[in-house]
Amino acid sequence: MSDDDLQSCPPDPTRRKFLLTTGTSVAASLAAAYVPVLANSAPGESEPAPPGARPTVEGAVPITLRINGKDHQLRIDPRTTLLDCIRETVALTGTKKGCDHGQCGACTVHVNGRRVNSCLTLALMHDGEEITTIEGLGTPDALHPMQAAFVAHDGYQCGYCTSGQIMSAVALLKEPCGPDDAAVKELMSGNICRCGAYPNIVAAIQQVRKNA
Amino acid sequence: MHTFEFSRPKDAAAAIAGTAEAKTAQQGADMRFIAGGTTLIDLMKLNVETPSRLVDINRLPLDQIETTPDGGLKIGATARNSDLAHHPAVLRSYPVLSQAILSGASAQLRNMATTAGNLLQRTRCVYFRDPAMPCNKREPGTGCPAITGSNRTLAILGTSEHCIATNPSDMCVALAALEATIHVQGSKGSRAIPIGDFHLLPGSTPNRETVLEPGDLITHVTLLPPVAGNKQVYLKLRDRASYEFALASAAVVVTIAGGKVTRARIALGGVGTKPWRSPEAEAVLIGKTAGAANFRNAAEMAMRNAKPQSENKFKIELAKRCLAHALQMAATS
């Protein structure tokens, strides 16, 4: 989703766009409330930032991240994980934060075509590399075959782990993997589904492998 | 997470020069090399690791895996675990290494984690990972609450009154059975360290886990040429079938001729404070019939000095059965 999409919200907004735009306005109103307080306590220290300007972060460094085929020139705190950068800086919120310690797989993205836990790597380490998130896989009108298979097989309940599951499943198609369900389960063990949709997830993956 | 300075050196010499003035290369290091990041970033988020400088070695040419002129294997420090596990030479000549790596972590983590990073993998002891708790490994002299606390998954071999943390690696167990050599480049030159000498027992200084000094950069690991006709097995027992650390594991590399064991290399995981080679168990087997009774004898010998904690006495019998079964699998493969 691009910034343009956000600014031109359709009359019938999706739940995701509603939440994103609501979040933005909450942040904006908080900032508006706090600016006078800060100005009073430290008079003349700095001009209030113009509306829409990105806040500057002390020690921020410039990087270019190539996400879903598009270059993003960013300034980030060096501590920013790839996950936080994708979600908070680039505002691609399809990638989810679960455990934030490499134990759940919700944050799975592809770097140079290989699946990784984006929570356990720094954005800074991926300058110039090819990053793919769930948004780069398909669109609502043209689903990736794996996305379509997850829909067809009901491979989710709450959906929170789903983008990570699908990113893992798509990467698995290119990895050494035996033909049976057990091999798929083993290679998908890094993606936890607390709703327990595992049988349907395996069925979806096997269907895509069969049709490939 | 604490702030740090991030740099990407142009070559190994620059990486070494940039970290040689660090106070220590052990727990509490103020400078760290970063490769896969799967251990380091995790521990930095927990404030267990607080380096003020990170040196990114991912773009140094250290990721090659190649056969050596003598028929052995040279494994680059930043070769990813998944690339190593699926490398044709490893599958052909060192299957125990492939099996060990593929039994650990998840596919995503194996795509990130590196050879050198796995050698330096930190314990999963819950007290080590929680800065609110005392821990002699994290903060020397503060005590070891694991000894009287939650220790079900912790070590029964090589422990001390100061630390009972388990080394969590699978890869290192296979490397111990394969008698790997770790090659390090430092500010005073290069050296080759047998894997048995690389990790340290906790003793009274559990904060020191390896022989690495400031500026030391692991460049590669070498394996000897495979022994003709040997059988290799890695068997891992754990609380769930996948994506879990070992309660007990065994790497065995044995040669059997005429029904008798002529050569044996045995290492255990999940039970030791370091990857646990067992020369005692190996000695029991040499010249003996490759059968269940002798395999059990070897397992008894491997566990002879095991010292259980309050919650993990079960590991002694588990590790014995694990080793005996691994030997049986190798003998019948």
Your description of this structure?
The complex is a heterodimer of chains A (212) and B (333). By secondary structure, chain A is α+β, with helices and mostly antiparallel strands. Chain A has helices spanning 3-7, 15-41, 82-89, 145-152, 162-172, 181-187, 198-211; strands at 61-67, 70-76, 108-111, 114-117, 130-132. Helices cover 38% and strands 12% of the residues of chain A. Chain A is elongated, with a radius of gyration of 20 Å. Chain A starts with a helix and ends with a helix. Residues 1-10 and 23-46 of chain A have low confidence and may be disordered. Among the domains of chain B are: 5-56, 2-Layer Sandwich (Uridine Diphospho-n-acetylenolpyruvylglucosamine Reductase, domain 2); 231-331, 2-Layer Sandwich (Enolase-like, domain 1), CATH 3.30.390. In chain B, the strands form 3 sheets. Chain B has a 5-stranded antiparallel beta sheet. In chain B, strands 9-10-11-12 form a 4-stranded antiparallel beta sheet, sandwiched between helices. Chain B has 333 residues and is an alpha+beta fold. Chain B contains 12 helices and 12 strands. In chain B, helix 11 (292-302) packs across helix 12 (314-331). Helix content of chain B is 27%, strand content 20%. The A-B interface holds A 59, 61, 78-79, 81, 100-102, 105, 108, 114-117, 119-122, 124-125, 168, 171-172, 175-176, 185-191 and B 1, 3-6, 34, 36-38, 41-42, 45, 54, 56, 58, 82, 86, 105-109, 111-112, 241-243.
Briefly, what is this?
With 212 residues, chain A is of the alpha+beta class.
Q: Which class do the helix and strand fractions of chain B yield?
A: alpha+beta
Number of strands of chain A: 5
Give the termini separation of chain A: 29 Å
Q: Helicity level of chain A, as a percent range?
A: 25-40%
The side-by-side strand order for the widest beta sheet of chain A comes to 2-1-5-3-4
The Rg value of chain A, from CA coordinates, equals 20 Å
Q: How far apart are the termini of chain B?
A: 49 Å
